Amino acid sequence: MSNRTPGGALASNIEVTANTVQRGDIIQVGGQACRVSDLFQLPQGAKQILFESGELLTIHTRTRLVAVRMLRRR
Fold first, then answer.
1. What is the pLDDT of residues 33-54, one digit of tens each?
2. Taking a C-beta distance cutoff of 8 angstroms, is the pair 49, 27 a contact?
3. pTM (global) more than 0.85
4. From the CA atom positions of the chain, what is the Rg in Å?
5. How far apart are CA 72 and CA 54, in angstroms?
């Protein structure tokens, strides 16, 4: 499902994993929307996600999260 944001950008709800999460994704954690600021590769395919708020979340290869991703216009 895709929706237009107030600024006109196209946003889509997607499922992300340690392999597919990207900077700029917005992930809801504990009821709070957190934007991914940076990613760090860990052993065995795990990733540590740094949010703009400074919080860290570590996910392993089988973790599945729902994120909002802003889509680029072509």
1. 999 999 999 999 999 999 999 9
2. yes
3. no
4. 13
5. 26
